[in-house]
Amino acid sequence: MIQTEIGTDLKKAKLLLDATEIISIPTETVYGLAANGKNPQAIAKIYTAKKRPISNPLILHYKDASSAFQDVTTIPKNAEVLAGKFWPGPLTMLLPKKNNIPDAVTSGKSHVAIRVPKHELCLSLLNTLDYPLAAPSANLYGRISPTSPIHVHEQLNSRIQYILDGGICEKGIESTIIGFENDNVIIYRLGSISIEAIETCIQKKVHVKNKIEDKQAPRASGMVKHHYAPNTAMFSIAKKHEEENLSNCGFIGFDTLHPDFPNENQFLLSENGNIDTAAKELYRSFHVMDAKRFKSIYIEFMPENGIGKAINDRIHRAIQKYSS
To answer: Which of 22, 221, 261, 297 could bridge to 250 as Cys pair (CB 3.0-4.6 Å)?
Structure first.
């Protein structure tokens, strides 16, 4: 039985990664489950530990833009502009890969997802390595993403040896994933960088293609229909029935308590209506409310502006498991 340790030892983290083991790493978005991104044997351990389908590709994390762009064959002008603005940061780009990138990272696809995380401890680790880190979120497949070491430990205890403790994640939801089709910028996953911020940077409209059909393989992480879900059944507050007994139900709201639920059964994402705070608190609210073992959890959608769209995307995917 593996004993999962939480700590801040970069040397230990590096030794494990060099030995083709997997560890959890902090990023500014969520905690990742990391392995040597150039080693298929190590990458396979990620899929096993997460119980993740091998058809679902991973993201490679690099120490800087120069290193990231060395592993792709084509760098569109807009990719350079966006990297200059948002790297290090929560933006992932899907670009044609070189042959040195294992098919295990991309699920056999021709494009690889790359990014430079904006987290001091994570970058310190990456700067000790001579390879990028493949790192999806450090949770069991389809479950709630972790934004603290404790969240990782709750789901992956005894499945991995080490959790590198970088504190609470600053952003709280995953990176935005973009690609380039002809002269268009495409968003495959809504995330911590808003559509508006990307459009302002490149001075043109972007297209959103973040949904796939049931039997279609995802082009990038986070595109599957059911995702980010707690064990407790979760529903939109709009689906609440008037006569329903809510004494054993929870409510996750934006900034205002709901009169139909006991106060102690409620979790507000931001009492002062700050959408960035709501994003940071979203997954923690899922963890907290799931632990209360309510009969069900109701949640309201956020304002559809800025990263509110990305938060609502996560809510849609979480409730989809229980509404289909």
So the answer is: 297
Residues 199 and 269 in one domain: no
For residues 158-177, give the mean pLDDT. 97
Could you tell me whether strands 249-253 and 296-299 are parallel, antiparallel, or unpaired per DSSP bridges? parallel
Q: Which of 179, 180, 172 minimizes the C-alpha distance to 310?
A: 172
H-run or E-run covering 151? helix 149-156
137 and 286, same structural domain? no
In tens, the pLDDT along 46-103 reads 999 999 999 899 999 999 999 999 999 999 999 999 999 999 999 999 999 999 999 9
Q: Would the pTM of this model clear 0.90, i.e. be above it?
A: yes
Torsion, CA 190, CA 194, CA 197, CA 198, rounded to 10: 0
Instruction: Measure the CA–CA gap between 190 and 170, rounded to whole angstroms.
Output: 17
pLDDT tens per residue, range 13-58: 999 999 999 999 999 999 999 999 999 999 999 999 999 999 899 9
Nearest to 94 by CA among 3, 181, 35: 181
